[in-house]
Amino acid sequence: NMDSTLHYIHNDSDLSTNSSFSPEEERKSKVQDVVPQALLDQYLSMTDPSRAQTVDTEIAKHCAYSLPGVALTLGRQNWHCLKDTYETLASDMQWKVRRTLAFSIHELAVILGDQLTAGDLVPVFNGFLKDLDEVRIGVLKHLHDFLKLLHVEKRREYLYQLQEFLVTDNSRNWRFRAELAEQLILLLDLYSARDIYDYLRPIAFSLCADKVSSVRWISYKLVSEMVKKLYMASTSTLVVDLMSELVEKFCRCRKWSGRQTFVFICQMISEDDCLPMDQFA
């Protein structure tokens, strides 16, 4: 009987706010009026561990892949229907499931808005940051997209964690470091000159000395953009300090590769007009 199956609740006040739901309240908390309830129930049942093992080992991954689309369809007012499922998938034993969610968490943040993102997505995001490299690359590739959605104070908390991206499970995973350099260029717009100098500068200098040339080339661009950003900031002493360190660290380096790095950074700075020529001189 379709009438009994498609049972809707129109009033949010019917939903219990108690964290310890009875089975009946648990069922009600998953009810909405956007799509047929039977369809949503079928989707939510896909994360049942016993079902995933007996029916299809890939089912959880497919469920994770389509979750942002389901969330968009239901709207942020019905996020309560999906929250438990999302948290179950985020702690799934299969890294491919967690990786799928990591690649789409920034999209979900746009759908949910800043309040729900801060409460429900940030803890999951923090967990992904400490996960396997295969999962971490998902949040790293969209780091700027996610952090720009957070409030300034919350965003600053991640400055302390950016250094951790330099450490990977496999040191040969140079694409991870290259992606970090690309993201840092974008992150320059989100942070103050002081934060850039204190937190992003040491990472940039470390990447400039990377063993892989592809990583170094992106890092030269990162440093030149950093010089430009600090020069445009009102605190002009920071750009002077940064350039002094470039001279000390690379120009006067005993290794020829360090001195070569200095030349390439100078090339980037002059080509991109990061400084007036008298300041450059």
UniProtKB/TrEMBL annotation:
InterPro entries: ARM-like (IPR011989), ARM-type_fold (IPR016024), PP2A_Regulatory_Subunit_A (IPR051023). The keyword Repeat applies. SUPFAM superfamilies: ARM repeat (SSF48371). Residues 11-30 are annotated as: Disordered. The keyword Repeat applies. GO terms for molecular function: protein phosphatase regulator activity. GO terms for cellular component: cytoplasm. Transmembrane segments: none annotated. Keywords: Repeat. This is PP4R1 phosphatase. It comes from Bucco capensis (collared puffbird). The lineage of its organism: Eukaryota, Metazoa, Chordata, Craniata, Vertebrata. The gene is Ppp4r1_1.
